[in-house]
Design a protein that fits this description.
Family: Belongs to the PhzF family.
Distance between the termini: 13 Å
InterPro entries: Phenazine_PhzF-like
CATH topology of the largest domain: Diaminopimelate Epimerase, Chain A, domain 1
Number of helices: 7
Pfam families: PhzC-PhzF
Radius of gyration: 18 Å
Keywords: Isomerase
Protein name: PhzF family phenazine biosynthesis protein
Largest sheet: 18 strands, mixed
Order of helices and strands: EEHEEEHEEEEHEHEHHEEEHEEEE
CATH class of the largest domain: Alpha Beta
Length: 277
């Protein structure tokens, strides 16, 4: 059974967000406990498990995403990584449909190596800043929004790009401010530069102190910044230590996310680690 480590939302082997990808043979998923043990062993923000669906008219593969501690409803970078693996291995071409907890998600590979993903747009609901948020983040929020059940994070607008880049939050305190995590964002300092807004994402509630590049967050960031900047197509920079670029295109209730990916490790799960052993 093959396992791949792929860096998503980057063209560089040591940038972007690394994800584990495990294509399964089927006909069904192994037990949840086994999936969780593999995700914990890989110990990246998410590991994706893809299962072929040869008899389905709606989707080509089933796809599930697990952090080292829990299964999640949506993950952009591990979806991009999975599509990259399937295309690189010659298993898939063109459009691939994934059946997920968030419905059917479609990916499309381009000749330039980028992959475009079609995700549901996250609904934004303005809410008061939770008690203790400013102290936990280390800065006063300008505005705060809930992002709906599929994303499940608190989107927090802060003063400027420098503030985002210099955040050093109290992660233990941040857990009490959101069920899953916090998306901190600000407009780019240079509006005519390579990106339009900058973001960092902290998910201590699911065992991830800081996620390097978060695709799912951009389904909320796209409508947030498109409304403010007056453009439906934008580029976001996630300002983690690894950094990564996510191109967004708002299409009403759908958001298109585009990025590149690089495979950095390929291997096999040994016989003793396979399901049922």
């Amino acid at each position: 059974m093959k396992i791949h480590i792929v860096n998503a939302f980057t063209t560089h082997p040591f940038g972007g967000n690394p994800a584990g990808v495990v294509p399964l043979d089927g006909p069904s998923y192994p037990e949840q406990s086994w999936l969780q043990q593999v995700a914990a062993q890989v110990n990246l923000s998410e590991t994706a498990f893809a299962l072929p669906l040869p008899d389905s008219d709606e989707a080509d593969w089933a796809l599930r995403w697990l952090t080292p501690a829990a299964e999640v409803n949506m993950c952009g970078h591990a979806t991009l990584a999975t599509a990259h693996v399937l295309h690189s291995a010659g298993i898939a071409t063109g459009t691939v449909r994934f059946a997920t907890r968030s419905g059917v998600l479609t990916t499309e590979a381009s000749d330039d190596g980028s992959i475009r993903m079609d995700f549901p747009t996250a609904p934004l609901t303005a809410v008061p800043a939770p008690e203790g948020l400013a102290a936990a983040l280390g800065t006063e929020p300008i505005s705060t929004y809930e992002t709906g059940p599929q994303v499940g994070d608190l989107l927090v607008e802060v003063a400027d790009e420098r503030t985002v880049r210099e955040l050093s939050p109290d992660l233990a305190a941040l857990v009490r401010c959101s069920d899953r995590g916090v998306i901190a964002t600000a407009r780019a300092d240079h509006p005519n530069g390579d990106y339009d807004f900058v973001t960092r994402c902290f998910f201590p509630g699911v065992g991830i102190d800081e996620d390097p590049v978060t695709g799912s967050a951009h389904t909320a960031l796209a409508p947030f910044w498109s409304a403010r900047l007056g453009r439906d197509e934008l580029t976001g920079l996630q300002g983690s230590a690894r950094t990564g670029l996510v191109r967004t295109a708002l299409r009403g209730d759908r958001t298109l996310l585009t990025g590149n990916a690089v495979t950095v490790i390929e291997g096999e799960l040994t016989e003793t680690t396979r399901p049922g052993r």
